[in-house]
Amino acid sequence: EVKLVESGGGLVQPGGSLKLSCAASGFTFSSYTMSWVRQTPEKRLEWVAYISNGGGSTYYPDTLKGRFIISRDNAKNTLYLQMSSLKSEDTAMYYCARSVVAHFDYWGQGTTLTVSS
Amino acid sequence: DILLTQSPAILSVSPGERVSFSCRASQNIGTSIHWYQQRTNGSPRLLIKYASESISGIPSRFSGSGSGTDFTLSINSVESEDIADYYCQQSNSWPTLTFGAGTKLELK
Fold first, then answer.
1. Is A56 on the interface with B (CB under 8 A)?
2. pLDDT in the model for residue A77
3. Strands (E), A8-115
4. Nearest to A107 among B44, B96, B101 (CB)
5. How far apart are CA B74 and CA B63, in angstroms?
6. Residue A65 has what pLDDT?
7. Which residues in chain B show pLDDT less than 50?
8. What pLDDT does B77 receive?
9. d(Cα A80, Cα A96) in Å, to the nearest integer?
10. Among partner residues A100, A103, A110, which is closest to B89 by beta-carbon distance?
């Protein structure tokens, strides 16, 4: 059974940093590209980051470039999202999702980030 | 960026009815549209890929159609477990992927 379990969310002050993790199981992690997708309090879904199966290629929406970094450790079957210079508009539920080319076939349960003073 | 407009924002149906969700793209995206269901307090679940391709494990009452700029997700005979939010997502501008704002399906 494919399982994705996110962790690391919490309350962060504006300008702060946080690193999310996603533990994967039930499939050959190193064979799949992975992404982070967030859902705002208004329930909008936004793609946040993409990483190739080997980790050599990463992509971000232009609005997030430079603040978010996606990475992975295939030996640990874990995906990461390092977030910095956080803003209130980054407040959201963050999902890790397995990517199949350009859509998402499995999603985790999500971890919540709140950016507030 | 490619914008996806979903309409209506809310759909009210009775069990057993057929329902259709609309997703319109701001430019021609071929069949690069995918549909997701999100139940209350749940994570999104892939229902249809590439406009009309079925997904293993998804009930056959779900189907998709369309190409170019206009796309439709249909549920043949709505069941109570289908009450959820439905989102479309485009992949024509990969790696930049965007979602529609969603349509909420509720019971009359």
1. no
2. 98
3. 10-12, 18-25, 33-39, 45-51, 58-59, 68-73, 78-83, 92-100, 103-107, 111-115
4. B44
5. 5
6. 80
7. none
8. 94
9. 9
10. A103
| Below-70 pLDDT ranges, chain A | none
User: Are the C-beta atoms of residues A5 and A11 closer than 8 Å to each other?
Assistant: no
How many angstroms separate the CA atoms of A18 and A53, rounded? 23
The whole-number pLDDT of residue A28 equals: 97
Nearest by CB to residue A59, choosing from B89, B95, B101, is B95
- Written as six digits, the tokens of B56 are 């293993």
Please give the structure tokens belonging to residue B77: 């005979």
pLDDT of residue A66: 86
Which residue of A1, A47, A103 to mutate against B (max B Cβ within 10 Å)? A103
**Alpha carbons A103 and A58: distance in angstroms, whole number:** 16
B91, A43: Cβ pair inside 8 Å?
no
B9 touches chain A (CB under 8 A): no
> Chain B residue closest to A104 (CA)?
B46
Strand partners, B10: B104
Q: In this predicted structure, what is the pLDDT of residue B80?
A: 95
Mark yes or no for CB contact A95/B43 under 8 Å.
Answer: yes
Q: Does B98 touch chain A (CB under 8 A)?
A: yes
**In this complex, which of A97, A103, A105 lies closest to B91 when CB atoms are compared?**
A103
d(CA B59, CA B94): 28
**The predicted structure's pLDDT at residue A102:** 87
Alpha helix segments (H runs only) across A23-103:
none
